[in-house]
Every structure is written in structure tokens, then in C-alpha cells.
Amino acid sequence: MSAQAPSAVILVRATSFVPNPATAADNAFQADAPPGQSDEATSAKAVAEMDALAAALREAGVRVHVFDDDDHTRPDSVFPNNWLSTHAGGTVAVYPMYASNRRHERRADVLEMLKSEYRVQTVVDYSGLEPDGVFLEGTGAMVLDHVSRVAYTAKSHRADVTVLERFCTDFNYEPMAFDAIDSDGVPVYHTNVIACVGTEVAMIALEMIPDEHRREQVCERLAVTGRTVIELTEEQIREFAGNAVELCGRTSTGKRRYVMAMSARAKRSLRPDQVAAIEESCEIVAVDIPTIELAGGSVRCMIAGIHLDRRPPLAEAELTEAVAAINEDNPVTPDGRYVAMADA
């Protein structure tokens, strides 16, 4: 497993997906479904897109855990990276969410799966800060450099600097907060729509950081390890080019390979030289997800990476007993997906 690129991920198969009205006010990337398209049709298209992403990641050799969710009261549950992150050494973080109808996306069965299949020592839960009106929406609000231990964060009411500093103290990251705005002066709602940090390459819309000195500091910090920094334009950001994530897959022979997961729309927005720079270290895995992108997020938002050590395989008798216990509390479908249970 790479320090930066996880080899396993969590996806949520939201069967009642629609763009969330509660997040539209501050998410400039969000759009309405096509006129006349029913919520049922929107949801069906989103499920097909999520299934296509899961299949593409598995084809690339990434381990994918898919959790079903048919709760119509949590339309954004397809974006689990906002409430959950995992960290080498066995720590899991749970985050405070800005929109009240997103807070019950936090799921006990996801945490129990992590504890049963991976080495989890501690769960640090910041969600109790929500009544105080301070929020930090996970790896949407922060783009984490796990190698250099830097938390790049565009300041907004979804990324409170006080909570950021607390997270960085708890998890040993250096906070690097900055203002980021679009050409209309609207603050960027999540850092991960304008920046992506991989092992040997990073993509970021430096032009959306208005403070020139801070812009230079961010660029220098990204490049300090020799990483190639690809500058994205605001136009590319609006095509979700920054909303990508590096993962560690395997070839059919078991050889490790790095992949950069993004939407097909994002890839189409990239110039040939930018594609070539990414492909120096990663294979691009691009999937069409136009319906899910209506909600203002793309592939990166859909993926909660697992940076945890996997537990060793159990003996057959132990495995049978463990699976029976897990299934009793967290039922699975015949094709191995987890069924939504009680909220955390």
C-alpha cells in the first residue's frame, strides 16, 4: 500500500440520489436535473454511474467495498469522503457536516466493517462540534498530502480553521489554509474540487487563490518532494478536473500500479500535455458520471480511501464464524453489497 494512494475504497450506492437542495446555496458546481426528469429516473441513472465506477476500479485492481443506501432523506450519501477518513496506524476520523440533512450519512455499519476487516485502533469523532456551528467536511474540505503531512484547505464555512488545526494536531499534519474564490468572487465550497495530490503529481487551480504570496507558498509546498505540479484553469475546474484521486491498484499478475480516478468529463477538459504529465506516474481511469456531477461533486467526492492495514486472513472456521456475526448485524445482498443499517 502506498502512503498517498490507498489500495481499497468505500463507495455508497445511493438508490435515492438527487441534487441536494440544502447544499445548493453555497455549491456553485451544483445543477438541477434536466427539466421533466423524475427523481426516480435521476436516481436510476446515478446508480448505474456508481456501478460503472465500482466496476472500473475493480478492473484496475482496487479493492472496493460498496454499501447500499435507499434512504431518500440523505440525497448526498454517494459522497462518503465528507464524513469519514482513515489513516495509517489504525485511526479513523468522523467529521462535522454543514448541511443538517447530511449528518445522518454517518453509518455505524461502515465503521464496523473497517474494524472487522482492517486494523483500527482509534476512532476520533469531531461530529459533536456541529451544535457549535463549526464544520470540517473530511477530505472534501481538506486535500491531504499523506507523505509530507500537509492538509491543504480552502477556507469556508464547511472548513473551519479551528477544527482544521485540531485535526492537524491530532493526526500530525501541517495546516495550510488559504482563501480560494472563483471569477465571480464566490468562495470554493470544497478544496477537493480545485486540488488533487498524488504520489508524484499534483493538480491545482492556483489562479483561484487570490493572494499571490500564498499561491506561491502552496505551489512550493506541493513541489518540495519533487512532485510535478499541474496548473488547472477555472474552466477545467468547472469540468471537475481537480476532483480526482490517486489509488493503488494491481495488474492481473499482481504487480502494483497507480491509477488516477476521475470522471470522463474531467479527462476531456485536460490538455494533451496535462494528460501526459499525469500518465508519467499513473494510468487514468475515467468514468462518465454526469448525473452524479449534478450534485456538485465528482469521482473524488464519491471515494473514501482506506489507508489502513488489512487484517490477516482468518482460518476457515474463524472466517465462517466472523462472517456470520457480521452479517447478523450488517446484512449483505447476494452480490456482496452492504445494506444500510442504523446511523452512527
Rounded to the nearest angstrom, the radius of gyration is 19 Å
Tally of separate domains: 1
* CATH second-level architecture: 5-stranded Propeller
Helix content: 25-40%
What is the total tally of β strands?
15
Identify low-pLDDT runs: 340-344
SSE succession: EHEEEHEHEEHEEEHEHEEHHEHEH
- At the fourth CATH level, what is the homologous superfamily? L-arginine/glycine Amidinotransferase, Chain A
CATH topology-level name: L-arginine/glycine Amidinotransferase, Chain A
Structural features, described:
The chain has a three-stranded mixed β-sheet. Strands 3-4-5 form a three-stranded mixed β-sheet, with no helix packed on it. It has a three-stranded mixed β-sheet with strand order 6-7-8, with helices on both faces. It is built from ten helices and 15 strands. With 344 residues, it is an alpha/beta fold. The chain has one domain: 5-stranded Propeller (L-arginine/glycine Amidinotransferase, Chain A), CATH 3.75.10. It is globular.
Summary keywords:
single chain, 344 residues, alpha/beta, L-arginine/glycine Amidinotransferase, Chain A, three-stranded mixed β-sheet, 10 helices, 15 strands
Break the fold down into its secondary structure elements and pairings:
Elements: E1 8-14, H1 39-59, E2 63-69, E3 84-87, E4 91-94, H2 108-117, E5 122-125, H3 138-141, E6 142-145, E7 150-154, H4 161-171, E8 174-178, E9 195-197, E10 201-204, H5 212-223, E11 228-231, H6 234-237, E12 245-250, E13 256-263, H7 264-269, H8 272-279, E14 283-287, H9 299-302, E15 304-306, H10 316-329
Parallel strand pairs: 1-2, 4-5, 7-8, 10-11, 13-14
Antiparallel strand pairs: 1-15, 3-4, 6-7, 9-10, 12-13
Protein name: Arginine deiminase-related protein
Signal peptide: 1-24
Organism: Nocardioides renjunii
